Records
---
Amino acid sequence: MTRMEAVHIPVLCKSVLNHLQVRPQGVYVDCTVGPGGHSRAIVKRLGAGRLVVLDLDEDALRLAARRLAGSKAKLSLHRENFRNLPRLLRRLRIRRIDGCLADVGVSSLQLQTAERGFSFMKEGPLDMRMDRTQTVTAASLVNDSRPERLLEILRTYGEVTGAARVVAALVEERHRKRFETTTELAAVVERVKGWPRGTRLHPATQVFQALRIEVNQELKNLEEFLSGVVGFLRPGGRLVVLAFHSLEDRLVKRAFARESGKCICFSPRDLCGCPRRRRVRILTRKPVRPSGPEIRTNPRARSAKLRAVERLNTSTGGHGGGGGPRAERGRKAVASRLGDGAREANRGQDR
Ligand SMILES: C[S@@+](CC[C@H](N)C(=O)[O-])C[C@H]1O[C@@H](n2cnc3c(N)ncnc32)[C@H](O)[C@@H]1O
């Protein structure tokens, strides 16, 4: 066992399994296999069932393949973005799944590998790509984005206080020398922001979070995944999502509310563009949080929130809004009012 395998502990694993209710003959998808912690627990409960696993990260898939080898279940691993899950399932000729897990965000494997550039605690290239075949990196964003765009990223995805001062310092610094490493960026942010009194959080934490979300398009991926996956769950099938910050959790909460037939635009009824189609039952009225002892043994679990739904036995299949032309007009009006879901989530419209 490598050191990384030893330190990686899957978050809220018991609760994930309780909510998935793995059936030995079932078909399951782990959309974010990472080092394979949750997948290992799932395959232990799968007899001759099937597990499809995805990750954007080649290193994670290699490690997961090693850790899952020897299981009885039919296993397939795919380097794929979970936003493309419907396409992948169609390619694999899978029409219905019994359960799906998404444990979004970065893994300890990624955070602790300096060359991946996710951590301000370790000197490494300013990279932050989960998918290393893509061209946009954290360095390209910091060095080449217009100041207004950088400001928007820091405010929207990091809720960075003093973002304008940080951006001004970054722009001044990059004229002198392009940013190349994580520690160069962290040092500039620390110089500008200092350590606010009474906090142990490094001043660069939110800046790194914001850049990571933008580099990997994390909120867009999650939003698209959430709108496509429910149509593939068989009646009784379950979807479990673990989120690690409020922007993600709000998207999950809203998507689950929409799929459970609630209005999430809060417009008058005849203007409402929400599908109002009850396709799922919400299993977690409040998100499940890790216990104190779990956080002590696995600090990465600290901010985790688990939400889960169960697919209902409805005859309606794929995704799409219902209603007549009035509802369609309403949908358009609401869509243009809300704009991008991620932006909206950040405005704190947690409904
Ligand atoms: C928190 S880790 C998963 C850990 C895993 N559940 C375990 O217990 O070992 C998240 C993983 O999701 C992957 N990931 C993030 N966004 C993704 C996306 N849009 N599509 C596929 N994989 C993604 C990351 O590369 C990372 O390996």
---
Amino acid sequence: MIQKIQRIFIVQRDLLAGVRNTALEVRDIIETISLCMEPLTAVVCQECISVCCINKHSSYDRSDLIFMTALGSDIPEDNTGIDDSAPCRFLGRNGCILERSTRPYRCTWFFCTPLLDYAMEKSGPSGYRKLIGMLQRITEKRTSMIYDFETVLLKNPHPGGWDIKPNNLLFY
Ligand code: SF4
Ligand code: SF4
């Protein structure tokens, strides 16, 4: 799947320019929100007795692959040799070793209740609203980026076939 998506970005370079630009915007917002998140996770996650970073969450789905390819980022291969319930392969001594924008997206939008509570306590209502607003912006832009990619794929079938089907579910 990774190589197929990379090939589409090469062949349809011009048509996917907008997708690449949106991916850059999404990356910038994610790295901005990361600056708000790090002081929170540094406190809450250190005390966690049920760490959510298990290996099941370390795989990149289709949308992650489109996002990462648009950015030209290296994409880690799925490592099937590690048990799903084992600690995530990217979990280091001080938390996740990946830049936030290169983590599977599920890792960015997941907030456990203690983390949300602490964010509210530390940021206050207006800071908390700002945080939630940034998360919504990330999701909206990312969704439109994926939609634009799938539209290009749907409307520009490759003569030899892309060997990857557009995600038609997005269009219903
Ligand atoms: S995000 Fe929540 S569940 Fe996950 S490690 Fe941090 S405190 Fe634990
Ligand atoms: S945040 Fe990092 S360590 Fe945690 S599950 Fe995601 S990729 Fe793994």
---
Amino acid sequence: MSSTSTNTISNNVPEINDQIRHNWNIAEVQALFDLPFNDLMFQAQTVHRQHFNPNEVQVSTLLSIKTGACPEDCKYCSQSARNKTDLETEKLLEVDNVLATAKAAQEQGSTRFCMGAAWRNPKARDMPYVIEMIKGVKALGLETCMTLGMLSADQANELQSAGLDYYNHNLDTSPEHYNQIITTRTYQDRLDTIGNVRSSGMKVCSGGIVGLGEESKDRASLLAQLANLSPQPESVPINMLVKIEGTPLSDVEDLESFDFIRCIAVARLMMPNSHVRLSAGRSAMNEQMQAMCFLAGANSIFYGCKLLTAENPETNQDIALFEKLGINTETIDTPDEQQESNNIRTALINEENKALFYDANV
Ligand code: SF4
């Protein structure tokens, strides 16, 4: 037997400090990605347990309320009118149709209903319909989320007043890789929309897609952009590219599974209070990989067999996996319950001087 002890504690586990940082540079984030896998997973799970119930996952359902014929040129997307996919386009759905789907999602255990439209931005003529949808879904007792493209400050305020809880607008990739993926809107356009959402009082859902042919430093740069938003997004979807025939990225090289899991773990470390969502690409992941993502700190998924237009595991497969892992779905707290759990969490952290966050500087 080798004299090297299998019980040796790694020296690579950095110290932890208790600040949420908004000044990450790419080299620091890259240092997290470069940690030995077990050290990274241990740290991510430690931080996760300080901020969330480790056996709870928040569940959302995503419905495409207007499909295809999008004027934008996102190179991964089946809905861009510029990509020659066999997607069937669909006009804006009737409000009643959307509400019936929301009710069914609620009965399956979803707590949040996300509605997505393939638009560059919503037009004035669309707003009354989406507002009716928000009010109807809200009246069912679900949290509401929309992703409709770019928003002006006025539009963000209008959606917030209608009761929209979250707005999704992803950064997609790093600023450095961005022009390889989209040319019809700028990175700054995206940051401006996120700023408008934040100023309106809505919660921000923003993440990105990995496996777009980017380099590892691009994944670090994307996470730095997200973590440096102040406040950080409440919800951070990490998508694995779903390669779609007819899109320019249909035969891009696969991302190594461990690189995806590392992305989840680093996102958890940098954004400890955010829900990190295991999003598109889940249908290509086996149960063991999904379990590893939960261990790395993912605590949100989409239920349902379609993610806008990409495949997603069937709801009953998710339920079976949750049973195997002893995972429960998160419920929505009342405002009083939210305040109480925040107080308890703060007290626990102060009392035990637990680390909130891990500093790559050391
Ligand atoms: S990702 Fe959104 S904005 Fe880009 S082409 Fe697809 S639907 Fe349009």
